[in-house]
Amino acid sequence: MKILYINALYSPLIKGGAEISLKVLVEGMQARGHEVVVLSLKPEEGLINETIDGVKVYRAGLKNAYWPFYNIKPGKISRLLWHIRDRYNAAMRDVVKKVIEIEQPDVVSCHNLVGWSIAVWDEIKKANIPLVQVLHDLYLLCPNSDMYKDNRSCDKQCFQCSLLRNQHRSLSNQVNAVVGISKFILKRFTDFHYFQEAKKHVIYNSRNIPESSIPKDRTIGQPLRVGYIGTLAEKKGIEWLIDQFNKIEVDVSLVIAGGGQKAYETNLRSINRNPKISFIGYVDPAQFYKQIDVLVVPSLWQEPLGMVAIEALAYYVPVIANAIGGLQETVIHEHNGLLCHDEEQDSLGLAILRLWQDVDLYNHLMKNTRRSVSRILSQQRMIDEYLEVLYGVHQSTKSK
Q: Which residue numbers delimit the Glycosyltransferase subfamily 4-like N-terminal domain (predicted)?
């Protein structure tokens, strides 16, 4: 089977977990004997192809006003014009047509379509090729990919989202199968009546995290090292975390790793006056998890899955998470972590304090961490499940 994967970015251009998981998937399919080709974007004009770790990768110049993956936020009007074109970018459809003609794939698997737009769906179906859409975020519902506005997650589409996504629901009926990386994100789309004609699946992303020895039990009075790792952005709840941390008067420290928009990152650093809080920038996640006792994921937006929580649990680090979105599918309250609620502001600080005070609870959570996500960590499981989906749409199309 020959598979064409379409995504906004591909290695070494990696913006987040979607690109990491896609690389694992693509290379895993190739190792299974399938022919794979990747089509992704680049900021410069033109279409090139190259080989990345043995995989054939096309990179097409994005035909829009600017490259959206820099850590620089354009003005409001520029962003609106960009999104208007991205609503249905016919110029990017022409690129897909060219690559399909060259490669003649048996099936196309679309992932993050920011920059490509849903115009690619029309071209794939025009070529009569089965189509699988994988949902990593909320881009197909919201131009900003997060459905987060005015410091809260949106229950409904706002007026602007409704205008910029007015074709998406009907055109989604062209998709043969849809895969959500969590139950939450798949339900989010089906609640909006997307993909009504598609076979529906949930396949969790995986991570290759080798087994390690379980840490020693905590003892009473031992300092507690709390960590945050990820993008520094308002919707990630970092200000909430800092505010709560400043109310804790026991032996607890907080390390914040990652980066984001320069202005917001500078603001966070400037408002911090607590010597027990440190910003360390970008770090190797494997080393970071080994230096902390608890990970906090205080996201205010509805994380599709929250792979950072899965990574922490794989390193035997209990997680405190806001009970929102896909995080609730992996962080199980009082089993491998604690859930708090942003509408109850002090619940986050109380959860941190509880793990410092109750070492028996902490040790119980810690012992459950790795095994609670062991199945998710299996890359072979992920590849098997995607193969089943791809074979299904390929065979059903051939039989018609």
A: 16-205
